[in-house]
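Possible regression after last week's pipeline update?

I re-ran a chain I had predicted before the update to compare outputs. Posting the input and the new output here so someone can diff against the archived version. Not blocking, just want to make sure nothing changed silently.
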Amino acid sequence: MTTIDWDAAADSFDEEPDHGLLDPVVRSAWARRMETWLPAARSAVLDLGCGTGSLSLLVAGQGHRVTAVDRSPRMVEQARAKLAGTGTEVLVGDAGHPPVGKQRFDVILARHTVWLLPDPAAALRHWFSLLRPGGRLVLIEGVWNGTGLSAARLTALLGEHTERVHHEPLSGDPLLWGKEVDDERYALVARAEPPLRHREVVDVHLILRRGPDVLLARRSGTGYADGLLHAPSGHTEDGEDVRAAMIRETAEEIGVELDPDELRVALVTQHRGPGGNPRIGWFFEAAYDPARPPRNAEPDKCSQLDWFPLDALPDDMVAYCRAALDGYRAEQRFLIHWHEDADTVAHAPRATRRAVPLPVAAAPTGRLHHVELRVPDLAEADAEWGWLLGRLGHVPYQRWALGRSWRRGDGYVVVEESPDAPCGSHDSPLPGAGRLAFHVGDRDQLDTLVARAPDHGWRLQAPDCHVYAGDNGPRIARLRNTAGHEVELVAP
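New output (post-update):
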């Protein structure tokens, strides 16, 4: 609450260029702003803390019906003289609770007034009660030499009453002030519309699998992320559940009619794009059927439809989709993918990872938490383990000077260079030595891994270690890397 004697200040008040608006250049700058902040139609405007009435005079001159209020009798006296003949009513009263009875207004205007009030929150609450539905509150405020009210603070106060607040910086327009300024000056235009419950768009995405490959579409002509690859996707419509939406979008985009039983939930993620609003994404998995090959059913929105290996996805993808597919490979079920405003819509391989996996409720006892391996050569281990774990669905997790880790679900594998690690091979019979065993989806995938392993530092152990347990039993391949670590790959 200021202690300024406004009656004493009244005689010199108009000497400031933005107070008296005596300079035609300054007056014209304020008139242009008022035309954008006020309704085009003739409206009832309440000017609170009107001072000597300079803004009221501008508003009345633009055809609006004005009621002006100020607590200083001397200010009101000058305002009445200035506004004579305009039909404006000028009242002495408290701006926080103006003496207007049951009148309602289309606009409430307050310039450099809110910061002076002893209880701004209570004043705003009362002002909104004086507005007609759809009316607007025009607040011009700032922070001068450490005093005043910041835009962030005032916007937060308005959030109790409305979701529609337009922020317009004013510091950069010297014509408004008759000089250059370097402090915070702004206008907020708030609509008298009650806050709505928070709502988020729900979208659906198809992970169509053809063995190790997934189907991706290159966006074109949509106005969003054009030129980037994304899974077939769309939004739910009113009254539509997510499975029905996925079936509809699949038919519309790739011409495949799916049965509900063919869809399996792969992943659910909450996503926020750069500068955008949050949304919920449901990712469904379905298997490719050669009898129903996909086709580009929307060539106006898609320039390419093709298969890509899931474990070697291209970089030119929508970051949201890429993060979800990486999470899907790692058997994560729930993700938060929250962009910062400066991020790109496109996947950026070297950018900060925004995907945060959420753990699924389950009894943790007995499940593998992580495996830590000491290695003599980190670069060698990074290449060898990175390849194998990537093929098995793990994704890079952590990096530090002497170590790397890869995660799948809520478990992860660490390799860390240790000066105590022997330079020779790892002798499995020694205490502390061991072998890792991983599931492999099927025998074809197992054979492919075994065939490619030598190119990546892994060699198949003796044939008697490449076990076939009958037609109905599992098939096991045992591999060893350069450092002597062993893994078993087990296919049903």
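Follow-up from reviewer: compared with the archived run. The chain is about 25% helix and 30% strand. Marking as no regression found.
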